[in-house]
Amino acid sequence: MKATFLGIGLVISGLALSFQTEAQTIPSPALPTDSTKTVSVRGRVSEQANGQTVPLVGATILWAGTTSGTVTDTDGLFQLPIHATAKQLVVSYVGYRPDTLLITNPAAPLAVSLRSERTLQEVTVLGAPGQIDRLNPIQTEFINQRTLAKAACCNLSESFETNASVSVSYSDAVTGAKQIQFLGLGGQYVQTNVENIPTVRGLATTFGLNYIPGTWITGIDVGKGAGSVVNGYESMSGQMNVELQKPDDKQKIFLNGYVNSFGRVEGNLNWSQPLVSRKRGYNHLWPDQKDRSVSEPKWSMGLLGHVSSLRTEIDQNQDGFRDLPLYTQVNVINRYKYNGEKYMAQFGVKALYEDRDGGQLSSFGDTRYRFLNTTRRLEFFSKTAKLYLDKPYKGLGLILNGVHHEQSARFGFAPYEGRQQTFYANLIYQSIIGNTNNAFKAGLSYLLDDYRELYKTIQTARTESVPGAFVEYTYTYPEKLTLVLGGRLDFHNLFGTQFTPRAHLKYTPSQNITFRASAGRGFRAANPFAENFGYLVSSRAVYLNTPLQFESSWNYGVSLTNDFWILGKKASLVLDYHRTDFQNQLIVDIEHPGELYFYNLAEAGGRGRSYANSFQAELNVQPAKRFEVKAAYRLFDVEQSMGAPFGEERLLPKMMISRERVLLNAGYALPYDKWKFDATLQWNGPRRIPYLREGYVHTSYQNMPVDMAPGFYNLNAQVSRAFRSGWEIYLGGENLTGFRQLNPIVAANDPFGPRFDAGSQVWGPITGRMVYAGFRFKPQP
């Protein structure tokens, strides 16, 4: 079976190509003229930092006096149709002086270099903690490399320390697995893509956030609510898209090293190399207004490498268990890119190996309780686009991806074996109807998932074969309104035909105010063991007695973004509210001490309810030059019905969800950007935890006592120093308040006894204060 999957995938990937991700993420603004005669302005926005040309990701390009514009992609590139009346382009980026260009030759590509707010020989690099994409009808926050550099950002799970929307915590006290929470729900309800390919899903849900090194990432789009139907049906609460360094990146070499006080060390290498170049003529509108010819790579190769390890035993609370598992991870991507006049293509291979060893300290001998996990993952991908130079609004592309994932684990004496084989294809065509006020995307998709899991004597196996078709229509009223209506039909071999409608509206009554609304359906098949690994680190008996149905939900959301000035300083306020209503959901019931039940919400005979309400307010302000402050408040109301298989039904707050969260972030950079300082303070409110007091016997959900974990503060900070030579060193700390949960493991002194539980009582940090140091090196060209 393995050879069949990889063989089919490799043959097809050799024949087919995939859509360039940039064409998928940047909407085309409207044109009031006949689009068949449209000419678009194209170009690149960059900055000069320490003698290097660095693309500015997320820079805003607007026609002067209008709200018609776009933003730059991960390579700093943009494409914007000409305006009927405006002739000047305004290019701006937070912390940089805006530039206004008179467009006399729209067909000539532009090269725009922005300077910092002060005219200096060196650039002061500034970046807001998070930027809302002002053009995307879906409420999307863009996290760029400057935001990621505010923390060590060793992997994707550690990339959200300054983000108010996404929170990350350990799922248990032994495995080291991290889980995200988004809109009051777990990370499995967020469709997490890497360059528009669904990636952190299936068996990778457990440790998948650790499999994407932070130094590989060039940007993260975090979208709230139902996502685009183009990317699939699994987006239920939101979607994230992670962009990695490209083979033709101008920064050819990047090195990173990291070490922390717990003994964790890691190294990263990003390498980009042009293989075959070509000459292309440009009128860049440089100050001397001369035409210049530049060399661009036609073929390029990229290599991304990562090695990390922790070999030091830590037991801060003296309970005999390692607070963090020992582990070693080796992770590599080899990719190639072709950049032609009519076609663009990328293809490559990813390989990962990781082993984990947690549980009791080695001093307990061979009879100690151990958690062992080994993961082997091999992945191929190809992405290609057919370009239409005379019709920039038109495109045809194909994305192909194949995955072979093997995972073996041991929980004490309980074995686990898991295997996932996946093939994914997405064919996308985009064009317009009459003019660019009316655009559409349509296509075909196919997903093949083959799962095999074995835990103790419980074996689960399923093969999902899902051909699908989708269409998405976008109407744009220039400078005021964007409406996106999409729908897809998926023919699931296990769950039947599924219709997934989604709608998004963006209304801009003024240049500084944007209103968004969205609604949509999503569905997915759950993997009960892989998504609840932490609960298996216990003596609980597992009950999976009824066939699990697919999960489905509706998500509704509204948001308001207001840019304004406070005492002459730029500020922005973002308010949003989202609600997720489940028609069916996998209920993970840990209310019974010593027992773990999996069952369907639908087993309540239609009376069961499960919903999540999320409200967030976020204020970003720049009180002084090079000084930025973010303050955010988040409120959750998440409840689900429990007890259906036992003839009961009680609506209870969902476990491990803090009702309230407050985040404060402040960042300051000295002139020339040689020193940067950043600090983030978080308060996590109380949350419900299972009632596991000694002697308690569960008899009824109606009379069940409720236990609450206390709220706590967490402080992270970092300082970094950059040098002209391309070196940067950084020093930081996490959980600097030193707060930790003293006894996260129940009955740690008797791990093979009936009460042992290391997964259902973890509500706060397990380890105390941690200090880290590292370096980044980007040699000058």
For the terminal residues, how far apart are their CA atoms? 47 Å
State the low-pLDDT regions, or none: 1-38, 117-129, 281-294
Q: What is the typical, i.e. mean, pLDDT?
A: 86
The CATH homologous superfamily name of the largest domain equals TonB-dependent receptor, beta-barrel domain
- What helical percentage do the residues reach? under 10%
Question: Can you walk through the features of this model?
Answer:
The radius of gyration is 26 Å and the shape is globular. The strands form 7 sheets. The chain has a 22-stranded antiparallel barrel. The model is unreliable at 1-38, 117-129 and 281-294 (pLDDT under 50). The chain contains 3 helices and 46 strands. It starts with a helix and ends with a strand. It has 2 domains: 2-16 and 133-777, TonB-dependent receptor, beta-barrel domain (Maltoporin, Chain A); 21-129, Carboxypeptidase-like, regulatory domain (Immunoglobulin-like), CATH 2.60.40.1120. The protein is mostly beta strands and 781 residues long.
